[in-house]
Q: What sequence folds into this?
């Protein structure tokens, strides 16, 4: 079924009896060419691009619970490509370009809103760093503009630019950044992949790998053995738990990151803003809630909930630039499990086991990467060579000293 | 989270800095034949278990001692807190 304005009007006039499920509830077959483990944004995008761009067939996505129930349903919905390093920026810019055409490509309204992202500057040194970052972005085909305090006040009159400790001295804007309706990304990819014949199998937990003579032959699941030509792990915060079943230890720690949404307010915040002196980022959802977040809790966790000191820290960061936030009540807060890698950058690579592939280590930047991650992973799976924007995301970069450490924090995952 | 410090009693976890897996106590021998592989493992690979995890916490805003905390990563429940110094000695470190 093709979605269109005409279809909506037709259904409205005929009692909405013509809508069907957006994807089939598939039962597992005995053998596939590709089994993708993890029905989140990245896994579903991988399946979609495998089928569409790389003309592959016999693809299954296995999901332990329901699709889109993990981090793609728990993030703060921001898209951007304002990275500095060569290993990262072309990849994220590729992702942003895919976001720009996503809805037409998927025939699904993902509410992609390029409302712009603004990173605030609070010191001269930070301005220098952001000028450098902006230039790196422009060199890689992204857009970046340095804004003065006056230009910022014009757009965001409520910001406290004269905070005694962290005055706002300017900002680096990426006007093509913005937000996307996160659940719709999972659902849109699921529907589009399903329409190209991908089997989406929910309530199917992978319990082990069948590895014979160094080759992965398939996966043991809660719904029986499923054979596969290629097995692709794509499970974010659960990466270590899953790959341990294949005998692998990863350069990853799982950490909890909290996010928050306020009660619904009238339109107040037109774009995405980030506080440069602490760690706070905020946008306003279309329902009116201020969606914001900050630092990790900072200790290994699989609990999907955090503790109060970080709540206080995030809200303090918000209040420093955005004093009227204090009048809004917090509606909800939640946690997601981040696959924090040792250098803060992801991995899309083969493993030492033939037929077993890995995609993970997204830290808390996985959502914006969803389309490019899926595309690059599909490229790797279909051709056994990395996509040209993802050549740096190798497992062996830690051993060879080619870390992609955007923040220069070293091998301390909770600082990335 | 409260960490029951062996000397100071229950302290707010916010007073501490988290380092990671308590295996980091044992730095590899830099003269070993496979020292490069050992240091790659030490520096970059982690077990990252879901369940009990022995981990290093530094009491930065307190007595500046290093602790080994045994905590369940699925519930955040802390079941054991030891001084890292005692753990290191019991596991054969000389200093």
A:
């Amino acid at each position: 079924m093709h979605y269109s304005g005409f279809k909506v009007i037709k259904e409205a006039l005929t009692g909405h009896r013509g809508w069907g499920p957006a994807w089939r509830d598939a039962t597992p077959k005995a053998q596939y060419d590709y089994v993708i483990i993890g029905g989140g944004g990245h896994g579903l995008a991988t399946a979609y691009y495998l089928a569409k761009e790389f003309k592959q067939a016999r693809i299954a996505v296995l999901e332990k619970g329901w699709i889109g129930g993990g981090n793609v349903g728990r993030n703060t919905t921001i898209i951007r490509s304002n990275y500095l390093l060569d290993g990262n920026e072309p990849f994220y810019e590729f992702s942003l370009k895919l976001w720009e055409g996503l809805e037409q490509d998927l025939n699904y309204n993902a509410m992609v809103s390029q409302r712009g992202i603004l990173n605030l500057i609070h010191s001269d040194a930070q301005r220098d760093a952001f000028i450098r970052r902006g230039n790196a972005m422009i060199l890689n085909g992204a857009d970046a503009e340095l804004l003065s305090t006056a230009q910022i006040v014009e757009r965001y009159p409520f910001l406290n630019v004269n905070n005694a400790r962290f005055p706002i001295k300017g900002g680096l804007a990426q006007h093509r950044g913005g937000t996307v309706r996160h659940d719709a990304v999972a659902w849109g990819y699921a529907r589009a992949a399903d329409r190209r014949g991908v089997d989406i199998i929910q309530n199917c937990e992978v319990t082990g790998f069948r590895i014979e003579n160094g080759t992965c032959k398939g996966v043991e699941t809660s719904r029986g053995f499923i054979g596969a030509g290629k097995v692709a792990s794509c499970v974010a915060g659960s990466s270590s738990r899953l790959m341990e079943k294949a005998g692998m230890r990863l350069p990853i720690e799982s950490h909890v990151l909290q996010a928050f949404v306020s009660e619904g307010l009238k339109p107040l915040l037109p774009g995405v803003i980030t506080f440069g002196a602490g760690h706070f980022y905020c946008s306003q959802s279309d329902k009116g809630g201020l969606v914001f977040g900050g630092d990790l809790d900072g200790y290994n966790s699989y609990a999907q909930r955090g503790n109060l000191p970080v709540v206080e820290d995030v809200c303090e960061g918000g209040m420093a630039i955005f004093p009227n936030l204090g009048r809004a009540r917090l509606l909800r807060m939640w946690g997601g499990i981040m696959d924090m890698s040792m250098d803060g950058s992801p991995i899309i690579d083969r493993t030492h086991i033939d037929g077993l592939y890995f995609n993970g280590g997204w830290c808390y930047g996985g959502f914006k990467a969803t389309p490019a991650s899926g595309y690059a992973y599909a490229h790797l799976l279909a051709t056994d060579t990395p996509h040209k924007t993802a050549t740096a995301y190798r497992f062996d970069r830690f051993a060879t000293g080619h870390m992609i450490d955007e923040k220069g924090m070293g091998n301390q995952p909770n600082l990335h | 989270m409260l960490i029951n410090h062996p000397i100071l009693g229950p302290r707010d976890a916010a007073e501490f800095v988290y380092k990671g897996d308590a295996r980091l106590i044992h730095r590899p021998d830099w003269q070993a034949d496979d020292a490069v592989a050992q240091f790659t493992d030490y520096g970059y690979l982690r077990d990252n278990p879901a369940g009990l995890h022995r981990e290093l916490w530094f009491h930065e805003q307190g007595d500046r001692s290093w602790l080994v905390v045994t905590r369940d990563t699925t519930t955040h429940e802390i079941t054991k807190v030891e001084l890292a110094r005692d753990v290191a000695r019991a596991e054969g470190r000389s200093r």
